[in-house]
Specification:
CATH superfamily: Transferase(Phosphotransferase) domain 1
Helix content: 25-40%
CATH architecture: Orthogonal Bundle
Structural class: alpha+beta
CATH topology: Transferase(Phosphotransferase), domain 1
Number of domains: 1
Radius of gyration: 17 Å
Number of helices: 7
Strand content: 5-15%
Length: 216
């Protein structure tokens, strides 16, 4: 598996909220929206090719920052599989969708939507999830939507216990766009001659599958 050189992971940026205090600080809502957009574009590409990641979490969302412009990429495809055959229980417990944690059924790409929702909870440390992860069940995570902050309340259906009731990556990208007056742009920096838009390159790396290696 081949990776471009990355600067670190989302987990690194969340330590001491370094995304808000570094050389190129972002406000929390800007940071959340940027991560969501980039990761959803990556998931959209994976899911269109019939692949479910199954271990989406802050440690597996990598980033680069060049001249104040953050780019996020999905990494670590060791647990990924085709949705046509994915049935095994894999991943990181607190981020696992209920159908992976409790069932022995084919797993759809909606499992990644659940994991991304838990990742957002982790980003804002909703109900101290970082400190209480070992005690969090899918049922508790789903129930947490009743107390979401306003900035992420519109994501609540990502935590539906029924995977068929969760929105797709494409639906969520449309939702993000409809919640803003203009398409997302990186915050303008003092040293920028113009505002730089986020890359349209799919936010995924090489994916090693059971039968071949796909490059996107």
């Amino acid at each position: 598996m081949i990776f471009e050189l990355m600067d670190g992971s989302l987990a690194d940026l969340l330590k001491n909220d370094s995304y808000a205090t570094g050389r190129y600080p972002l406000k929390r809502d800007q940071f959340i929206w940027l991560v969501l957009e980039h990761v959803l574009k990556g998931l959209q590409h994976l899911h269109a090719n019939g692949i479910v990641h199954r271990d989406l979490k802050p440690d597996n969302i990598l980033y680069t920052c060049r001249n104040g412009e953050y780019q996020f990429r999905i990494g670590d495809f060791g647990s990924s599989n085709y949705t046509s055959v994915a049935k095994t229980c894999v991943g990181t417990p607190v981020f696992m969708a209920p159908e992976i944690k409790h069932g022995d059924q084919l797993q759809s790409d909606k499992a990644d939507i659940w994991s991304l929702f838990v990742t957002v909870l982790w980003m804002v440390n909703h109900r101290q999830i970082r400190q209480t992860a070992r005690y969090m069940s899918p049922e508790k995570i789903s129930a947490s939507v009743d107390s979401l902050d306003d900035e992420i309340r519109f994501l609540g259906d990502m935590a539906s216990m029924d995977p068929n009731q969760r929105p797709s990556a494409t639906e969520l990208l449309h939702r993000l766009a409809s919640c803003r007056d203009v398409p997302w742009e990186q915050p303008k920096r003092d040293d920028d001659s113009s505002t730089r838009k986020a890359s349209k390159t799919p936010a995924v790396h090489h994916v090693k599958t059971p039968h071949s290696q796909l490059q996107w």
